[in-house]
Structure formats: C-alpha cells, structure tokens
C-alpha cells in the first residue's frame, strides 16, 4: 500500500515566505462573487472527473498539479489527509516573486477508500497563518475556515476534528476556497479562479 507523505516547511522556506504571508493571509480567506458555482463550462468530464478537476490549470501553481496518482487507503476505518501541505508555487506579483513554496495543497490529493471509511482532514501547525477550508464540490460537506493547527483564528482555540464518513461508492471531489475554488472568488490580486489548484478527491470503492 502506498503511504502518504506529509512534507515539511524548512527554515529557509519560512524566511522566503514570511515577507509575503501577511498579504497572502489577508486575501486568503476568499469570498464568493456569485451564489452558484461558475465552472466556466467545465463539468469535469461528467464521468469520474478526477483528472480534469485536479489538473485544471491554476493561476500560481506549475502544471501538472496532480502527478502522484491515487493513494490506496482501502480497508482502513479512518484515514487522514493534510490540509495545508507544502507545494511549489509561482506567483508573478510584486512582493511574491521569491515565494517558491507555500502551504496550499492537500496531501494526498487523491485517495482510494472502502465504503464506511472516515476521512479526517488535518491542519498542520506552520508559522505562516494561512487559513484553508474543505468544501465538497457537490455540497456534501464544508469544514469552514481553519488556521494552522486547526484553530478558529491564529493562535485561537482548536476546533473539533473535521471528518466525513464516505458510505456510498463513487468519486467525491473537493477544494479549498480560494486556493482551488471552481468559481470566481476574491484572492491574491483581486478576482481569481483556482489560485493554487488546492483540490482533492476521495474514490470510494467496494471492489
């Protein structure tokens, strides 16, 4: 079984991102500009939709975004996904040019589980307080924004674990707003669509 790998952020990377994080966190809590998702005509294939969804071009993330395949986590009662994993970024905006990495990814991006599995998203502790949420593309779940360590605010109280039980076989897609939203939101530099490709997939199979 393939094991998930949770990357860490080095002191060098912290120093590179520290100068820009205040702006990133200010605009990082995206607000929707429309009540209904705007998918730009993209229905992500209507089939499993996983590749089209995870690899849709992002503003500030090099392609391919998803290249690690699907992590097999079947036959486990509970599994974890990191919300805020370190990933490479490219931000051609003044003040962000030297920012090579940022905690704006799910890891693993795509997992395969058995029906009845509980998936828990974990917000790691980082010195850069960038908030993330976990939002189902189909409206099945929404974690609300959480900061590193799973807190309600920087340095605030830790919220209860956010989990979802996947009972029915199928493919479940989700994203972070605005770092991977499939609709227009307010982000770095104003109105954006899919800033960093921060998206994920849960494949539930009984085979």
TrEMBL record:
A single MF term (Gene Ontology): metal ion binding
Highest taxon, organism lineage: Archaea
Keyword annotations: Copper, Metal-binding
InterPro entries in UniProt: BlueCu_1, Cupredoxin, TAT_signal
Annotated protein name in UniProt: Plastocyanin/azurin family copper-binding protein
Domain Blue (type 1) copper stretches: 104-181
Keyword Metal-binding: yes
Keyword Metal-binding attributed: yes
């Amino acid at each position: 079984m393939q094991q998930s790998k949770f990357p860490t952020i080095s002191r060098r990377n912290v120093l590179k991102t520290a100068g820009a994080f205040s702006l990133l966190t200010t605009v990082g809590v995206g607000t929707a500009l429309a009540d209904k998702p705007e998918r730009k005509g993209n229905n992500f294939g209507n089939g499993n939709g996983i590749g089209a969804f995870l690899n849709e071009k992002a503003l500030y993330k090099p392609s391919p975004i998803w290249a690690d395949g699907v992590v097999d986590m079947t036959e486990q009662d509970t599994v974890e996904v990191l919300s805020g994993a370190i990933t490479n970024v490219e931000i051609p905006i003044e003040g962000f040019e030297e920012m090579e990495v940022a905690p704006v990814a799910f890891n693993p991006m795509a997992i395969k589980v058995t029906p009845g599995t509980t998936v828990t998203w974990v917000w790691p502790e980082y010195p850069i307080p960038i908030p993330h949420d976990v939002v189902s593309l189909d409206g099945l779940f929404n974690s609300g924004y959480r900061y590193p360590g799973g807190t309600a605010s920087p340095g605030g109280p830790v919220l209860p674990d956010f989990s979802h039980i996947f009972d029915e076989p199928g493919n479940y897609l989700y994203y972070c707003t605005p770092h991977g939203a499939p609709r227009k939101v307010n982000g770095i530099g104003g109105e954006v669509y899919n800033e960093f490709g921060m998206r994920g997939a849960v494949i539930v199979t009984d085979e």
